[in-house]
Amino acid sequence: RTYDALRATLVQAELILLRALGFALRAPVPQHFLHRYLARAMAPLARDFDVDEWGREARAEHGAIDAMDTRVARRCRARGIEARRGLKENDKTRCKSYQLANLYPSRAVALGCVYTTMRAQGLLSAGAGEDPTSWVRDIGSGKVDVEDFAEVVEELGRL
User: Model's pTM, two decimal places?
Assistant: First the structure.
């Protein structure tokens, strides 16, 4: 009886959770947004050419690579994954930052990763480093809350 009651309660809780999620079980992660945000953020630095419009042969001839294969992109991706990595080596069950993994939208975390990485590399324009509000609106297309972004940057600074 106890087993059946617990099982029924668990099944009921799962159904409530599925309804709350709209049966959408795929949650967005920061990596889904990194390519877009990084491309927008790097555009002023690469205004003379757009490698993404080159054909495969032209890329091979000039040794051009995809934006996500650059050193900056790899560091952004690593920052995005850092919140989900375990505290101990080979421990993937605990998060380094509960807030980054659960409380902030993935868009804000992705944009925070791009911002902190570009700031560390010295790639931000002069105004973006001092007051990132307009930078967040431009790169995030108005879909990232500035307050969430500021808290994400602060949390990323603690890692």
Answer: 0.70
